Structures are given as C-alpha cells and as structure tokens.
C-alpha cells in the first residue's frame, strides 16, 4: 500500500559522513571503484555477491553445501570474503530498543517446555534477540534455534559450522573492510507501515552505517517500495536498488508486480538499480533492454544463480552481477569468463584451457537458451 507523497524537504537528512564521501563506494577489490551518483551510476565489473554471506541455509535440502555455515553470521561473511567476491548480502531488522540486527526471518523460533514458540524479531530487545543460538561467551548456552520452512515444517537449525547472531555494528567491526555490504532493509510483506515508522527504522540503520562504514562499499536494497524511496531521500551517499520478483507473486502494491513497475519506481524515486529474481529475467529478457535504456543497473538473485551456465548466460545478456549461495563455485567460473586476456593470449590458448573456461550446456539447457536467441539478437543490435 502506497504512502502519501513525501517531499525531500520533509524528511530529516542523515547525510553527514565524515571525511571524503566520494570514497564511500570504493574498495581495494575494485580496480576503479563504483561510479556513484544518481544521474550516472555504473558498476565497475560483473559482481558476485555472497547471499547472506557464504549462502543461505536450506535445512531441508539434501545438498550439504546449503547447511555448511550459519547464514547471516560474522563467520559466514568472513568465509565468503576469502573468495573473489565483491559484496556480501544480508538482511537487517531493527529491535524494539532500536538496534539494527542481522536476521532474515520475520519470526525467530525456539523450543520451550517441549513446545515450539515464536516471536517477532522486531518485538524483541537486543539482549533477548542475542540469547538465541550459540553464545560468544564460553560456557554460556543459548536458546535452541528452529526454523519454519515455506511448507510449514519446523526444523532444528543445525549447520556444520554454527555461529552467534550478530548486529550490524559487529559486522562493520569484524568483517574485512574491503568487502562490500549489500544491506537489505528487511520489512514484513504483510504489514502496512506508516511513514513515521519507516523513517524511524531507516534512521536507526543509517546512524550505524554512517558511524562505522568508513570507506566500505555499500549498496542498500529492499522489496518495500516506500522504504526504497525514503532511504534514497534520507541519504545520497550510497546507491539504492529496488528488489523485485518480477511478477512471480502478485501483491496489492502494484509497484512490486513487474519489472516495468520496478523501472517506474526507480526513475520516479532516483534509485540506481534493480535486483530481480533471475527467473523473471529469463522469462522476460526484453526487460534487460528497458532497464538499460533507463540507465539503471541490474543484479539478480535466485537458485538459478548457483548454476554456472545460467550465470554465464546472464553475463552475455547484460546483467551486471549475481547474488549466489555457492560462493566458491561461482566465483571460480566467473573469474574464468571475465578475466582479461593477455596480449596474444587469444591465439595461443590451448584446447584444454578453452574447454575449462566455457560452461558446458546439456541438450535441455541448450534448447531453453536457444529460445532466447531472437531476443538476445534484438538486444545486441
């Protein structure tokens, strides 16, 4: 549900960043940094972004890689940073005592007196939130942690390498400062937020960002259209991307229901880019052309981004980066197909090297990709 129009002059601005703000989007991981600014935003290269750090936890998955490291944790962020990624993506919510914490789900579950109980994260105080899961202090045992799957099952949140829950401030202080943060502003799809509440939550997050970010590259993103507009009005230092599933689910707020609506929101609000479900891009490849013509950047998320062939195809189509769970696997293949060739290397490449650097397509995958060729030719013309 849309909020009433908010004029820039009506919203308190938190854009006081110490030092040279132009450095805020630069990192030693980028050769040229990120070209910021509302009128001309350009990502320096094809980005690989670690989803919730080293990947989300899918507890019901038979793939052990989806249960290796606790998602959205300091351990997960630092593990991802050991590979050639540019950013880690994570979800930020604000506790009832105004502390930004990193956690994906709206509700946190534990077992009490033999029964599962759940509490909304934003209704907990910081000490209550940090009581769940492993504790940093030796000898202290935290509350057990469970998770509800999309089909309603409740599973014990067990991973191979567990870690404590953490705050946004801790992430800034304990993660390599050259690793960029894609901060998703996590809000509940089923709550209609009042303008004052959104401004309060966003200001709390921005205070931590401005105090601790220093020169770390930052991108804000959110599925909530009003939050996207407001975070852009509250600050102009960091780029803001609008998250969309591109119409795979329908919402009462039409701004969430298609790539074209996402483009309109970005242009009306001065946002710098779109993060789309990768399936929406493959179903509607012409959307890439419209996004590019609108001078917006495009990133994608989704399970297909763990498939090297799908990532390679997006690179060819003009997508500028992918959010992935299989960080090591995807960073390796991306390095292979975007690394600059040395002078004369094209002629001297052996057949063996050519085979290893080009993804292999199955017949089914090739058939699917061939259907996109007319659209791709139109885009390249």
From TrEMBL:
<keyword id="KW-0378">Hydrolase</keyword>
<dbReference type="Pfam" id="PF03009">
    <property type="entry name" value="GDPD"/>
</dbReference>
<comment type="similarity">
    <text>Belongs to the glycerophosphoryl diester phosphodiesterase family.</text>
</comment>
<dbReference type="GO" id="GO:0006071">
    <property type="term" value="P:glycerol metabolic process"/>
</dbReference>
<dbReference type="InterPro" id="IPR051578">
    <property type="entry name" value="GDPD"/>
</dbReference>
<protein>
    <recommendedName>
        <fullName>glycerophosphodiester phosphodiesterase</fullName>
        <ecNumber>3.1.4.46</ecNumber>
    </recommendedName>
</protein>
<dbReference type="InterPro" id="IPR030395">
    <property type="entry name" value="GP_PDE_dom"/>
</dbReference>
<dbReference type="InterPro" id="IPR017946">
    <property type="entry name" value="PLC-like_Pdiesterase_TIM-brl"/>
</dbReference>
<dbReference type="GO" id="GO:0046475">
    <property type="term" value="P:glycerophospholipid catabolic process"/>
</dbReference>
<dbReference type="GO" id="GO:0008889">
    <property type="term" value="F:glycerophosphodiester phosphodiesterase activity"/>
</dbReference>
<feature type="domain" description="GP-PDE">
    <location>
        <begin position="46"/>
        <end position="334"/>
    </location>
</feature>
<keyword id="KW-0319">Glycerol metabolism</keyword>
């Amino acid at each position: 549900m849309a909020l009433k129009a908010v004029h820039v002059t009506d919203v308190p601005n938190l854009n006081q960043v110490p030092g040279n703000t132009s450095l805020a989007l630069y990192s030693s991981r980028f050769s040229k940094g990120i070209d910021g600014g509302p009128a001309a935003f350009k990502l320096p290269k094809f980005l690989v972004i670690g989803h919730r750090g080293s990947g989300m936890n899918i507890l019901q998955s038979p793939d052990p890689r989806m249960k290796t490291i606790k998602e959205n944790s300091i351990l997960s962020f630092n593990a991802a940073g050991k590979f050639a990624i540019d950013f880690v993506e994570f979800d930020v919510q604000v506790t009832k005592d105004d502390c930004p914490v990193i956690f994906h789900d709206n509700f946190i579950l534990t077992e009490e007196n033999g029964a599962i109980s759940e509490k909304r994260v934003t209704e907990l105080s910081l000490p209550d939130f940090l009581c769940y899961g492993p504790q940093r202090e030796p000898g202290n045992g935290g509350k057990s942690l469970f998770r509800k799957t999309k089909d309603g099952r409740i599973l014990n949140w067990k991973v191979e390498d567990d870690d404590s829950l953490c705050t946004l401030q801790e992430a800034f202080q304990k993660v390599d400062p050259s690793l960029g943060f894609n901060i998703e502003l996590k809000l509940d799809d089923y709550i209609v937020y009042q303008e004052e509440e959104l401004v309060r939550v966003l200001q709390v997050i921005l205070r931590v960002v401005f105090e601790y970010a220093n020169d770390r590259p930052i991108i804000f993103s959110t599925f909530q259209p009003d939050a996207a507009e407001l975070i852009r009005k509250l600050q102009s230092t960091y780029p803001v991307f609008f998250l969309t599933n591109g119409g795979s689910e329908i919402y009462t707020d039409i701004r969430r229901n298609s790539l074209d609506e996402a483009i309109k929101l970005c242009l009306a609000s001065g946002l710098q880019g779109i993060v789309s479900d990768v399936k929406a891009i493959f179903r509607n490849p012409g959307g890439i052309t419209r996004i590019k013509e609108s001078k917006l950047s495009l990133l994608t998320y989704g399970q297909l981004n763990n498939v090297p062939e799908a990532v390679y195809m997006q690179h060819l189509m003009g997508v500028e980066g992918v959010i992935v769970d299989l960080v090591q696997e995807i960073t390796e293949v991306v390095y292979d197909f975007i690394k600059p060739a040395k002078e004369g290397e094209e002629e001297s490449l052996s057949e063996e090297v050519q085979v290893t650097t080009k993804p292999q397509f199955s017949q089914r995958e090739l058939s699917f990709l061939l259907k996109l060729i007319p659209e791709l030719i139109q885009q390249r013309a």
